[in-house]
């Protein structure tokens, strides 16, 4: 269990972390006395020695100042840092990246990642909505030719029209209409993850021709899910990490870039944060070795009030956590608002459940 620190130690620890984040130079007692606290250097030095013994500070060289440990950063993030509001210039800069709300989802995610990266000077990422949690707004089987129909799947984040369904050559438009009505009644308002369980009963109670179509619909939706899940995480500002002295070492930088290119490295780490309001993973708290010199800060954005994806930054443990939190909190609001607008526009674009445009191609 962590030792409870008194108020004086907490103030000194906050000052050390704030100064080291700003300068990257080990912090001495005189610096704290001169810049932050009107106490004697001797008093501060004694307290810093106690903090070192407790594992919150480290002294990289004899006669040098102290630097925060990962334990200190953890305490700082949870108790000591102040998250301030962004100023008008910072807000304008963020908004300038994502000013166009008519672009597709890929473009929106790329712009968001670049905006976060530019605002923080760290590497930024955006985790798209989990396709299995996306809700179905509409689903239709549109006749194309005899024995062939187009599956049109409308979700919160877009419209998928790439799947063709084979049907019995004897199927009429009326038969497809009945199946479409059945699908809409069963699936609209539910997530893609619920499709299999929702269709099982329908398939058992259907005649063979309908069962074959429903089975093909299920296969087509699963193909769409697989295609969406294979998409890479959107990363912005890869090279920003080189702006920080911690990554002046070539081998360290190379390992970082390799980790950024590996979906297997990033995705499990980011998936754990999906749906969580605010997460900070510091140094050795990261499971992947290449990320153990880094901190990862994430927040989730929503669609129609439900957690959808994540945005965040990856940088050195000597990260300006307060400013990062301010940027991510603001971008969280922008992302959620824009995703809601996309969801609403999608709902208005196609017919509502129970309607179908016969012969649409």
Q: Can you offer a commentary on this structure?
A:
There is one protein chain. With 361 residues, this protein is α+β, with helices and mostly antiparallel strands. The chain contains twelve helices and ten strands. The strands form three sheets. A five-stranded antiparallel sheet has the order 7-3-10-9-8, sandwiched between helices. It has a three-stranded antiparallel sheet with strand order 4-5-6. The model is unreliable at 351-361 (pLDDT under 50).
Describe the secondary-structure layout.
Layout: H1 7-23, H2 29-35, H3 41-53, E1 57-58, E2 67-68, H4 70-80, H5 88-97, H6 105-120, E3 123-127, E4 136-145, E5 148-155, E6 158-166, H7 173-187, H8 195-204, H9 208-229, E7 234-236, H10 250-261, H11 263-271, E8 278-282, E9 294-303, E10 306-316, H12 321-349
Antiparallel strand pairs: 1-2, 3-7, 3-10, 4-5, 5-6, 8-9, 9-10
Helix pairs in contact: 1-3, 1-4, 2-3, 5-6, 6-12, 7-8, 8-9
Shape verdict? elongated
| Most strands sheet | 5 strands, antiparallel
Total strand count, please? 10
Helix vs. strand class: alpha+beta
Distance between the termini: 65 Å
Whole-number count of domains: 3
Question: Spans with pLDDT under 50 lasting ≥5 residues?
Answer: 351-361
- What is the C-alpha radius of gyration, as a whole number of Å? 27 Å
Mean pLDDT equals 83
Query: Please, what is the CATH homologous superfamily of the largest domain?
Result: GAF domain
Q: Approximately what portion of the residues adopt beta-strand conformation?
A: 15-25%
CATH class of the largest domain: Alpha Beta
Strand order of the largest sheet: 7-3-10-9-8
CATH architecture of the largest domain: 2-Layer Sandwich
CATH fold description of the largest domain = Beta-Lactamase
N-to-C series of helices and strands: HHHEEHHHEEEEHHHEHHEEEH
Could you estimate the helical fraction of the residues in percent? Answer: 40-55%
Number of helices: 12
